[in-house]
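User: Batch of two.

Assistant: Item 1 of 2:
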Amino acid sequence: MPFGMGRAGWFYGPYLAPWMRCWSPWLMAPYGTPFAPFTQAEEVAFLEEQAKILEDQIGQIQKRLDELKKQQKESK
C-alpha cells in the first residue's frame, strides 16, 4: 500500500480523497448522484427487456436439460 497505510489502504477514513465525495453516493455526495433515476416508462421498458432475456435463458437451460436427459436415457 502506498504511504505505509497498511491493510486499510485507500479506504481508511482519514486518507479518503475529498474529491471522491462528489461522485460517490455512499460517501456523503454533496452534488448528488451522477445519473438521473429512471422514469416510469424507462423502468417498464428496462424490466420488460430483462424479463425477455431471462425467459430466453430459461428456455436455453430447459433445452440443454432435455438434451442431457435424452442422452442419459439412450446410454442406459
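Item 2 of 2:
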Amino acid sequence: MQVEKIVKINEDEQNALLRIFSRLPTNEKIEVMADHRKLVYKLKQMHDEISVSILSYAALIMAVQVYKTNQDKLNRLNISDLSLNEIREITAMRTKLFLQKQFRRQSKREYLLNYWSVVRTLKIDEQVSFRKIAIYLKKYHKLDVSYSLIAKTWTEIEKKDKENG
C-alpha cells in the first residue's frame, strides 16, 4: 500500500515493469540499478518514516518506469512535437543503443571464433551448410548465431588464409 502511494501505480502495472526489467540485457539492468540508487536517496529524504526496503522497491519500480519512458521516446517516429533538447537526448540514446548492438555483434563473433574448429570441421569434412551449422551450434553448444554471421566470418578467415598461404 505504501509503495502504491509513492510510485502512484497499481500492483499489476508494477509487475509489468518488473517483467520488463527481467528481460533487459545485463548492461541495461546495471544502468537501471544506478538510477535506482539515486532514487533511493531522494525517496529517503522525502519519506524518512518509511523503511528503506520499501523505498528501495519503490525506487526500482520508478527507475524501470523512467527506462520504459525513455525507450518509448526512442520508438516515437514523429519528432515534430519534441523540443530540441528532447531530440538531442533521443539522438544520444539511439546512438548508445546502436553502439551496444554493434558491441553485441562483435562479442557473438568472438564466441563463434571459440567454436571455429567445430565450424571448420562441419563445413569442410561434413560439407554442412551455414544454416545447418548455425542450428548445430545452437542445439549442441547453446550458441545462438546467425548463419549469415558464420558465412561472413568464414569468408573473412578463408580470404586471410589464402593471402597468407
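Residues 104-164 form one domain.
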